[in-house]
Amino acid sequence: MAFDAGMAAAVTHELSETLVGAKIEKVYQPSNDEIVLLCRGRGGSRKLLLSASASGARVCITEGARENPKTPPMFCMQLRKHLTGAVIAAFRMHGFERVIEMELSAYDELGFACKKFLITEIMGKYSNLVFAEEKGEGKKVLGALKSVDFTTSSKRQVLPGMAYELPPTQNKVDPMTVTGAEFEQVLLAYPAERNAEKFILDSFQGISPLVAREIADRAGVLGMRIADIARTDVMWRSLKAFREGIERHDFSPVMLAHEDGTPFEYCFFDVKQYGEVAKITKFSSFGALFDGFFGARERAASMRSRCHDMESIITSAKNKLGRKIPQLEAELKECDEMDTYKLWGDLITASIYMLQKKAAFCEVTNYYSEDLETVKIPLDSKITPSQNAAKYYKKYTKLKTAKQYLTEQIAKAKEEFSYLESVEEAMSRVENEEDIGGIRAELVHSGYVSKNGAKEKQKDRPDKGLRRYFTTLGREFYVGRNNMQNDYLTTKFAKKSDWWFHVKGGHGSHVIMVCDIGEDPDAQDFTEAAAAAAYYSGFREGENVAVDYTEVRNVKKPSGAVPGKVVYYTNYTAYVNPMKPREE
User: Fold this and answer.
1) What is the pLDDT of residues 208-257, one digit of tens each?
2) What phi and psi values does residue 102 have, to the nearest 5 degrees?
3) Are 245 and 43 in contact (CB under 8 A)?
């Protein structure tokens, strides 16, 4: 997964065809490493995303919505000052490197026409966005998304007022200008025991591992050592065909995904090396490709970031319970001695007439045993035998009371621990702000998070934002987003004739399938509702997941139980593969 120089060439061509001549109307900085430019041209308004993210650096047109901070960062303010109203004059690359330069026609403070530049350097964790202006034959840095001083890099600094320099090269051969003779010289100098794709990756600049493997695959030498290749000219022809495709602008935005639909690679031309193993999806534009590839992942990352404070609270509470439960169980184990103390008290009382005072122990017959064995009982020599008996009865009573109390406390602690696990599971599948708000409201209700006022409490009602879906046959069903919503669905929203679904032996959402009295839903409706219950559970990645289902009339909520806790006794069990339900 890499935005290599070939992808940069494809994106540069697409942006040149689409945005040249457009005017920049607004500038936003939704995160520390992203800039969004709202551009208006002949095709209407478009959003240009310039990202210097370590894991997703790219330049593309985007349709995705991003939340902007209340106070714009300084770099955003600088761009607004200089670029609002500027016209995009050109997009270009410098050599076959992952650097895309956007030239803008703007005006300086005195109203004179000038050229400004936004340069996106895509270099993994060193990715950056540099704002510069024309200065003689070169460029002067006006600002940067990430300033680079001498403490950060001794090779190249990016600071306001300095002359802009391109990132240092990797001392590799440019595949767009190399000749056949030069290719042979590079090949002869490369270790023969290494394979073909490694040679392409190590020797030629701007090529990602995916593209290197594809070039080798099309040459029929993928995985082969250089020494074992009979004719190395096939590699040259494959590299040359790759170069000619870029020169002809023969680009195709494609995304590769696993069988479950999870994307793992993207490319600017058709990829054949995976055969039938990967699902290949073609997009109408590179902007749509990047929205499809990064969109779900970035939304999930954003949701996880917003859940971080709640995760910390839950983790702390779980750790506390994790220490408390073993301590309670150890104390409970000590209570096993209570029957022994009662027996000793009974035996001392039964034999008190024959016991000596001030003795350290006594040996008496165990009348409660069939074998009538002799029991040796320790005594406190400072008190009388009757007082020793009373002392053992007191220990027995104390341990008996402690056993009942500890048993209750252990049950409550384990139930609380299970509840926290259910909240964690719900947070692992949040999809939007409503999901987060619902979980936060639940934690406020449970006492784990302090209240932020009655206004927030009213905002996040349990009935707000219920997930509503339909089966293929049109049967309506609902899915809870969190434990409080699960309670609302099952105990207040659902009718007694509706059907209730929940994953067996795990945490997950309650699913309610709407059904009138006397109706008999189709088997496919039951299967799809059960598959949704499996999908919105901790077993989402599993297969043949067990899901219990029964009529709502058979589901009860115990008095004082934690949110989401119900009991049921009459039920059926279905084994299904988790599947996300289709929306209305």
Assistant:
1) 999 999 999 999 999 999 999 888 899 999 999 999 999 999 999 999 98
2) -110, 120
3) no
